[in-house]
């Protein structure tokens, strides 16, 4: 696809400087750098300021409060072109007083939690709620921070012996002191498919989604399976539609919690739909003309795909005829 890396979280050229992750002296110097700053996380959310990602100086006193038990040290994200190091820090141990937390963890969490140590306008926001507003640079930083913090939060114990593990390699590894096993961040491959037949595209919806929300079909790649095979298997399992040729279009890191969305195009060789109710509530073919109404917000049944998601990106390029 032309413009394939313009998808949200698609990458802004962040220098991850992996070669210094194991350099203890280098990390000490990076943390002490006068321009060092961090993406601040709280319960999976990122600190925002007036619609932009807020970068917090490493000297800020908030970093000494409420650190999460399993992420008790900054995680090194990379280096700016200016030489300034960036980190991710998690303060999920902080508990807001008197704030409504009922939206936390909901499919559409638009709540905004303000911390008393920051000026008005600063607050923690769900990345999916703000991702379309982030610059490519900020989106990559936020996605990387969320993915690595998520991983640490669920991998505090060694999978080999069950003992507590500790952060090593500046946050990009966990090592078990008991058996010396090393553990590394995981990313789960997920195929998301633009399946077309003539002038129509295949869409589906999960019963737990908000009313009117439809998306492209998607599913995890299984062990021992190619991307192409996963596309064909997932589509026929969920909708009964069979797929012929498959080609790659674009990818998107999707840290909710740890996926890499692999956008593919497939040509349907059948059109009859038989929905698997354990996978989908409904699936349907949508013509190009109807999809134009969807994007315009005037379709009577289907709401437009969420901006920033790869489904929106693929459908937009399909409508604009900018798919290779």
TrEMBL record:
GO MF term set: hydrolase activity
Broadest EC class assigned to this enzyme: hydrolase
EC number: 3.6.1.22
Cofactor annotation: Zn(2+); Mg(2+)
Pfam families on file: NUDIX, NUDIX-like, Zn_ribbon_NUD
UniProt superkingdom: Bacteria
Matches recorded under PROSITE patterns: NUDIX, NUDIX_BOX
All residue ranges annotated as the Nudix hydrolase domain in the record: 185-310
Keyword terms, alphabetized: Hydrolase, Magnesium, Metal-binding, NAD
Chemical reaction(s) catalysed: a 5'-end NAD(+)-phospho-ribonucleoside in mRNA + H2O = a 5'-end phospho-adenosine-phospho-ribonucleoside in mRNA + beta-nicotinamide D-ribonucleotide + 2 H(+)
Record family assignment: Belongs to the Nudix hydrolase family. NudC subfamily.
Name assigned to this protein: NAD(+) diphosphatase
Organism, as annotated: Arenibacterium halophilum
